[in-house]
Amino acid sequence: MSPTTPASDPDPFAPRDLDVTQELDAPEAFARLAGRAPRPERAPEDVADRLFAAPDTAPHADPHAGPRGGRAARAAALLATLTVVPAVAFALPDTTLNVVDDAGAALGLGPDGLRGLLRATGLGLPALLLAVPPAAVAARRLSARAVLLAGLLCLAAGVLAAPLADSVPLVAAVRAAQGAGAGVALPAVLVLVWERRSTLLTALWAGTLAAALLAVMPLALAAVPMSGTTAEPVPWHTALAPRPEPVLAALVAALLCLLLRDRGRDALPPLRHAERGQLVLPLVPAAGFAFLALMTTYDWSSGGQLVVAGVALFALVGLALVGSRDATAGSPLGCAVVMVTAGLFGYPVTAPLAGLAAAAAPERGAPPPAPFVAAALAALLGALLTALLTARLPHAAARAAVLTGHGLVVTGVLLGLAVDATGAPWALLLPLVPLGAGLGAALAASLRDAGVGSALFGLSLCFPAVLTGQLLVLSLQVGQLERVAPATEAQRLYGLLAGYRLWLVVAGVLVLVLTAAWARAARAARAANVPDL
């Protein structure tokens, strides 16, 4: 048979045409001999291309799209990151306990009715974690900008309807709408960030998420101070939407994203069936866990709540490890496990700490904001510095950055045991700053070479981890209150502080467990040859 046999020859063993004057490397030559198109290689990138992803080097770039449109679209994505993520985070805090007496008097509720009210105001987080997986699929399959706008409109509707809620069912609907809208908007803005293909913008998103989880509760408590203090009282409806301003700013940013769209840069790889299956995988266990978490509010013992939280944490780590072996949900640096770490040690650590600091300052009725703002800034700086320092370095540097971030988290937890949470406000800087820097650095480093599917998969595990941490710390505090049986406010504060310190001990152990799980996930991803996307 002649070497010049056409490629359409049905004989599978017939040799193919090769241009002997063209220099080919071994993989490309083998691909041509096998009749397959060789996999295109990436062009070399310098640090500016990697960090800012210049539009003319994009794999889907439109030759008619100029750099001005790319810069405007990047600016819109940056503005959306800085506004949407905080607006989403403000759907988490439940400050109704500070005004529960006023709310009960306004709604004419007895003791059972007050428990139902607190159960209704706690629906924000379960609604949020249930909305993230289907919203992630929608943001990949449909226009991410349209999904973002739909989520923010739902969130804004819940915020604007808060003053009109005059019954427990309406309060439940308001909080559920806020949580669902936040859960729809967050994966959409992540997809917008991924469309920019910018390492620095991805790190900014990671740092903003960590910062919001750390600082959102003290800022909400500042808007809803405890009743019975010298602080000026606020209407009880304020607890349903303590900070509406970020939602309005996020809506403006979403509209700018619709207007400033760089069509040459917006195309991501199409959603595949395998990716869709991986993104909705956490939905069923998350729904079951949210249901059980809600059921624990019906006079469950603190031991029963701990069992539910332990089972949920085991399931989350198992999902993260299983997903790490998948080519779609896995990532070279185990971002799914790091997302669980960020959810477990962000909001569940600082939210009860803010409550303790507020209870120790009756003249203000709110925690001091400076330590928590410093922690948020540390998270942002940690994420951005990690991206800048590891942009041109190999995977080993990024893995070292993730380990360093976990080490800082352990340091923050240990320092939290060493300081008095109800003491001087400046003392809170010692645990909060390393905690924020560690979470920001670990999250940014783990996302460096992740694909959009693996980032969304990790995000779908983050907020179930938040709920797990909340259930852990609250059950430990309830257990300590049952042991102390407080008769005075000072004894009650002592019981809450003892339960929080016990939570920090548990958290220190869990950080080490999650660090080991991350190392195993990263090894599994390398063994499975998970691609760098």
UniProtKB/TrEMBL annotation:
Residues 1-45 are annotated as: Disordered. The keyword Oxidoreductase does not apply. Keywords: Membrane, Transmembrane, Transmembrane helix. Gene3D superfamilies: MFS general substrate transporter like domains (1.20.1250.20). Signal peptide: none annotated. The chain crosses the membrane at residues 75-92, 117-139, 146-164, 176-194, 201-224, 244-260, 280-298, 304-323, 335-360, 372-393, 400-419, 425-444, 456-478, 498-519. This is MFS family permease. It comes from Actinomadura namibiensis.
